[in-house]
Amino acid sequence: MCHIDTSWGFMMSHRNPLRFKSLFIMFLSLLAFWSIVFTFVYKDQPLETIHIFIQADYINEAKLVEDLELFLRDDGIKNVKLTVISEKYIYFSQSFMTVGLLESDLLILSDDLVKDFDLSESFHVLEDYDLNAERLFAQNSHIYGLMVADYFKRNYVMVSDQSSFVFLNTSSKHDYELQLKILSFLLLYE
Length: 190
Hints:
This protein has helices spanning 17-42, 61-72, 92-103, 111-114, 150-155, 176-186; strands at residues 49-55, 79-85, 106-110, 136-139, 142-147, 164-168. It folds into 2 domains: 1-43; 46-186, D-Maltodextrin-Binding Protein, domain 2. It is of the alpha/beta class.
């Protein structure tokens, strides 16, 4: 008859119980070390993420994220983060001032929200647009925002009570050209 040793004798010598503890601690330390290394290696880097702040009651976030990630894949963007918040929300102004202005690359905002706001401090001036053209948000003879297309609103079921404009944040970690590319996506007209 075959006898199976279940006394853990193969791992721990009765003469040296500290050896088992030392090996166990070393194993846990190595496991923790490599877990930390892999977390940093495979974590999305800040330049691989686009953040868009949207003032709206509702938008189909899943579809918009999927389409933007596909559109920006060749630019090294792996993650699209959306912050969708209604102006009716009690903490909207705090979210706008922190998440919107400090963390977001692009913002979709109502004209009522930004009409009394000094846009030159937070948003890029958009060049190559006729100042007299429709669908622009201008301030002091400079164009800062472009109106979100009706097609975009229908395609992504964007629900908002007011006209919405896209603004490019000057505090974005991404270059102006990538922001313009995203702007072109958000302004797709039929």
